[in-house]
Amino acid sequence: MDDRSPPPVTLEEVARRAGVSPSTVSRILNGTARVRESKRQAVERAIADLKYLPNEIARGLALGHTMSVGVITQDISSAFYNETLKGIEDSLADAGYSPLFVSGHWNAAKEAERMALLVARRVEGVIVLTGAMDDETLLNHAHRVPLVITGRDLQGPNVLSIRLANEQAAFEATRHLIELGHTRIAHIAGPQQHVDAQERLAGYRRALTQAGLPVDERLVAFGDFHEGSGLLALNQLLATRLSFTALFVANDQMAYGARLALHNKSIRVPEDLSLVGFDDLPGSLYTIPPLTTVRQPVYELGKVAGEAILRMIKGKKASLPELPLQLIVRESTTRKRG
Q1: Structure confidence by residue, pLDDT tens digits, 130-179
Q2: Which of 52, 294, 316, 332 satisfies CB 3.0 to 4.6 Å to 278 for a cystine?
Q3: Under 8 Å between Cβ of 299 and 83
Q4: C-alpha closest to that of 256 among 80, 138, 128, 105
Q5: Of 19, 117, 2, 132, whose CA–CA distance to 68 is shortest?
Q6: Which domains are present in the chain?
Q7: Which element (helix H / strand E) includes 103?
Q8: Is the dihedral of CA 46, 52, 55, 60 positive or negative?
Q9: Alpha carbon distance 18, 131 (integer Å)
């Protein structure tokens, strides 16, 4: 018994069945043919009868298209980046494009290597999710491939950028705690080489200053945006023996770690301490208690970035809409007692 599949139908076989030349079939497939409707219908019937599947990759290469977009992320395992990557993937899939994901790990040299790799793979565009590469390097790469960049304001030919209002959102998160009567508010900041972390720390400080409250730098600890660092940072704050009744954390993952540290010390949330995060990751609705946090439109960010890069690839005018951040109040915050 012969289990081998029959050889694939060729373009030449379709041409013979339709009574046209192979080049006519090719032009009809790629949308550049100007032929009589009868010929077009004959080719379409032949394709259907023979169950012909065109080689999209070969056809794309012949036209100078690889149907791929490079995506430089920083931590592909991060829950935050996962949602953004889903948005990118969904937007590209609608147009028949595929993403190539690489990680830079907040290292400018590694990001440059990944960028060179993507260009060598002939991607048609690159989306850079924040990152450490300097503006000049990015602008130089834009001479070869269109770029969409998140997390910064960068203007230039073949470049589109979007920056979320991290400072203002952090200000509003801290002000929420102040409006609940808290005057001693601690902060777990992210690593200060990250622009997002810098802006969230600035928003925290501005809210305190604007309310006439002192900014006590001893109530600021630093983490790396991962859960373990949130636990360690909270223990550092408690070790100072300084009093505080509320805590604003620069991202949800560190807030999860801080929440565990509070549980280990029998400090109740929100009865003893109100807790606010930043990101509104899917899991934040299911913490005990559900976490008050700033909702970032992370999926939408990926979606609009993907849609924009596709327009740029096609030579069309592209823009990125303003994406609002929103404070989501849940049960982890309450009015200060006493």
Answers
A1: 888 889 999 989 989 999 999 888 888 999 999 899 999 999 999 999 99
A2: 294
A3: yes
A4: 80
A5: 117
A6: 11-54 (1.10.260.40), 68-164+298-322 (3.40.50.2300), 166-295 (3.40.50.2300)
A7: strand 98-103
A8: positive
A9: 53
